[in-house]
Amino acid sequence: MRMGQEKGNQQSNANFAFRLYQRLVSKTPSQNIFFSPVSVSASLAMLSLGARSATKTQILQSMGFNFTHTPEPAIQQGFQHLVHSLNVPSKDLDLRMGSVLFIKKELQLQTHFLDNVKRLYESEVFSTDFSNTSSARERINSYVEKETKGKIVDLIQDLEPQTAMVLVNYIFFKAKWEKPFNPRYTSKRYPFLVGKTTVKVPMMHQVEQFAFAVDPELNCSVLQMDYSGDTAALFVLPGQGKMRQLEQALSSRTLRKWSHSLQKRWLEVFLPKFSTSTSYALETILPKMGIRDAFDRKADFSGITKTDFLQVSKAAHKAVLDISEDGTTAAAATATKLTIRSKDSPSPAICFNRSFLLLIINKATETILFLGKVEDPTKF
């Protein structure tokens, strides 16, 4: 695949990520948000393989693809490359991402579609008996639980007996910081501003060299902390009362601007320790982004089955993340560094003690694995 096309895919994926984020924010403006744009994009691209006519066009155009610039085979090739590179096992990083389709068992599926889904997306398609909704739900949930080593449970809460197709995508991520925090410096009850009040959170603390940037235009600070295994977290702290302005300006261009202006410097960092697990019923959100036909009577999935009418009745997404000190083996070395540095010369401090954005990026593919907003770390 040409370099230019790969760049185009990354930009489309990033812009789709931010548009989906803005939709989720408008639904619940003052709540935590956390999802995996790459997992959602990959499952939609996979679904588009079996879509035809307007159903296909709506899916790919809503994802930000322009057919004159990027023909469909190049889009699919881009996702194949992405899914494959993200699922390569690594000793430093536990990342599991997958999409899977559960389709009503009476349907005659097209072998061409089944082959493509396996070849391009390393995905499974299961024929499922939806007439018994509780055993169908149990089957879907236990499949996802097994694939994510028990991290993602109860993905599907309810199913209709007339369900024809369920699209599931899941992602699980666990990595160690390249520069871990020492748990001894985590203050148990640190005030974190939520609206007009404060909640108490465990706040991690270290002095270290990190890549950092200030964006005067958007009035925010950007801190990059690397994980081992070619992955980095970006924490973006807007000035007081500037979150809305920041959210509206999110785009692949903004992200590029930040990554170009990051510079290594000594910093004193305060970061909340928290875990999150969020689920979204995307069948209520994607139609508002232009993917309408796939979810209603106009759906054309004749690439999946020729004989019957098929529409997506559910698109479930669940993402899990854990932000902690991780890497206690380096604790002793970290301890001396913190005390010496503090006496030495005061480093500027950045304290994530009010709402901030969080992006986790795979550096090799420049892909946003996760995107979220922490409004209240005690509420995940």
Structural summary, described in words:
With 380 residues, the chain is an alpha+beta fold. The protein folds into two domains: 3-175 and 276-321, Antithrombin, Chain I, domain 2 (2-Layer Sandwich); 183-273 and 327-374, Alpha-1-antitrypsin, domain 1, CATH 2.30.39. Helices cover 31% and strands 32% of the residues. The chain is built from nine helices and 14 strands. Strands 1, 5, 6, 7, 8, 9, 12, 13 and 14 form a nine-stranded mixed beta sheet that branches. It has a five-stranded mixed beta sheet with strand order 3-2-4-11-10, sandwiched between helices. Strand 2 (93-104), helix 5 and strand 3 (124-128) form a beta-alpha-beta unit. The chain is globular. This is Serpin family A member 9. InterPro entries: Serpin_dom, Serpin_fam, Serpin_sf, Serpin_sf_1, Serpin_sf_2. One of its GO terms (cellular component) is extracellular space.
Task: Please write out the topology.
Layout: H1 3-27, E1 33-35, H2 37-48, H3 53-62, H4 72-86, E2 93-104, H5 111-121, E3 124-128, H6 133-147, E4 165-175, E5 187-194, E6 197-215, E7 220-227, E8 231-238, H7 243-248, H8 252-261, E9 263-272, E10 274-281, E11 314-323, H9 331-344, E12 349-351, E13 356-362, E14 367-374
Parallel strand pairs: 2-3, 4-11, 9-12
Antiparallel strand pairs: 1-14, 2-4, 5-6, 6-7, 6-9, 7-8, 8-13, 10-11, 13-14
Helix pairs in contact: 2-3
Task: Please summarize what this structure is.
Belongs to the serpin family. The protein is α+β, with helices and mostly antiparallel strands and 380 residues long.
